[in-house]
């Protein structure tokens, strides 16, 4: 569909050698596939362009490893020309020299087409490596890549390195970091979350993209992995419960989300969106609180249970927060539409 507003979405390209784990990452993050089931995935051998419908509206292009995408018949402008990030997956359990050559080649060429691309290296499958070896591998890959790029005069390239595995939350963490770089409104979102936390006695708050369980923003207190895990599991739990007990017969749709949770978190009108909410008391006197923001986003917070006495205040503050989020993204949409009108 040629929708000019939609085409303004940031694009995420996933590349890497064959068997590096590209399809597995995509299935686990965007289709809620169980990590163990990826053992039976066919390796990517065609370009898969996936339009993943989420709040972030990004495209994922999964490129097969062995393909020579710099073949003159390929339109490199169309592939690299847009605002977005290129994720290069390296299998850390394998000898990675060939992958590094390919990475350097890809970065140098793509940078020439689009110097604004973010390059993100996923040092992947690190679940089998010891902590020491992980750090050493990351240091080695970082060093070799920056040296190689410096030789080509490309010191300014924006490069990020992430240790990832589909067997834990690290792959989601890495995606969160990549996506946060692509959201121009991030400082505003963080600010709004800070204000919400400070005024409502919330200890930690994450704004999640429901479909992928990637958090797109959090308040500025440090992220500790346990709080993050429990908050992201909350989305899973609600999903499972609603799948089992919802009145509707729930079937997973393409995005891996059941119809039932969609109807809970994606109400038909914006006025009822705030209805989606859930609360779990933890044994350590903390409360996990989930609130639907709109059809793509949910806020998950950790609140000391004493502070929950001010339930009304929290709910009121949340309403203000929700309105502010809607305003922030509406402004962006309006400015894109205005720009398009001017272009016509
Ligand atoms: P592709 O060719 O790049 O799309 O690679 P695949 O996604 O087909 O993955 C190749 C193999 O790597 C599969 O057997 C996956 O189960 C395995 N794999 C993917 N990610 C991980 C990971 O994080 N850890 C481990 N141990 N294996 C992984």
TrEMBL record:
Its main location: membrane. SUPFAM superfamilies: P-loop containing nucleoside triphosphate hydrolases (SSF52540). GO terms for molecular function: GTP binding; GTPase activity. It is found in: Endomembrane system. It catalyses: GTP + H2O = GDP + phosphate + H(+). Signal peptide: none annotated. InterPro entries: Gtr1_RagA, P-loop_NTPase, RagC/D. GO terms for biological process: cellular response to starvation; negative regulation of autophagy; positive regulation of TORC1 signaling. One of its GO terms (cellular component) is nucleus. Keywords: GTP-binding, Hydrolase, Membrane, Nucleotide-binding. Gene3D superfamilies: 3.30.450.190, P-loop containing nucleotide triphosphate hydrolases. Component of the GSE complex. Belongs to the GTR/RAG GTP-binding protein family. GTPase involved in activation of the TORC1 signaling pathway, which promotes growth and represses autophagy in nutrient-rich conditions. This is GTP-binding protein.
């Amino acid at each position: 569909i040629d929708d000019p507003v939609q085409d303004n979405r940031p694009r995420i390209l996933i590349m890497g050698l064959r068997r590096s784990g590209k399809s597995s990452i995509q299935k686990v993050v965007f289709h809620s596939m169980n990590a163990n089931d990826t053992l039976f995935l066919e390796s990517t051998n065609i370009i898969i362009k996936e339009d993943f419908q989420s709040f972030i509206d990004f495209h994922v292009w999964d490129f097969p490893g062995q393909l020579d995408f710099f073949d003159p018949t390929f339109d490199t402008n169309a592939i690299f020309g847009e605002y977005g990030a290129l994720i290069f997956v390296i299998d850390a359990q394998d000898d990675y020299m060939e992958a590094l050559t390919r990475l350097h080649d890809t970065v140098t060429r793509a940078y020439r087409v689009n110097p604004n691309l973010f390059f993100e290296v996923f040092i992947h499958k690190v679940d089998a490596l010891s902590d020491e070896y992980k750090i050493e591998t990351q240091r080695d890959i970082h060093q070799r890549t920056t040296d190689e790029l410096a030789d080509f005069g490309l010191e300014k390239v924006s490069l990020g390195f992430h240790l990832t595995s589909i067997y834990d939350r690290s792959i989601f963490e890495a995606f969160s970091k990549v996506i946060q770089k692509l959201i121009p409104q991030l400082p505003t979102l963080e600010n709004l979350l800070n204000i919400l936390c400070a005024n409502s006695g919330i200890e930690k708050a994450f704004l999640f993209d429901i479909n992928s369980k990637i958090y797109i923003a959090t308040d500025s207190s440090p992220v500790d992995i346990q709080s993050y895990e429990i908050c992201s599991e909350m989305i899973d739990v609600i999903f499972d419960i609603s799948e089992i007990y919802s009145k509707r017969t729930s079937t997973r749709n393409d995005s891996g989300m059941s119809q039932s949770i969609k109807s809970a978190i994606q109400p038909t009108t914006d006025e009822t969106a705030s209805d989606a909410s859930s609360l779990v008391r933890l044994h350590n006197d903390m409360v996990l609180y989930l609130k639907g923001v709109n059809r793509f986003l949910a806020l998950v917070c950790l609140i000391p249970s004493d502070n929950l006495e001010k339930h009304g205040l929290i709910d009121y503050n949340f309403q203000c927060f929700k309105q502010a989020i809607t305003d922030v993204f509406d402004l962006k949409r309006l400015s894109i539409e205005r720009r398009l009108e001017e272009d016509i």
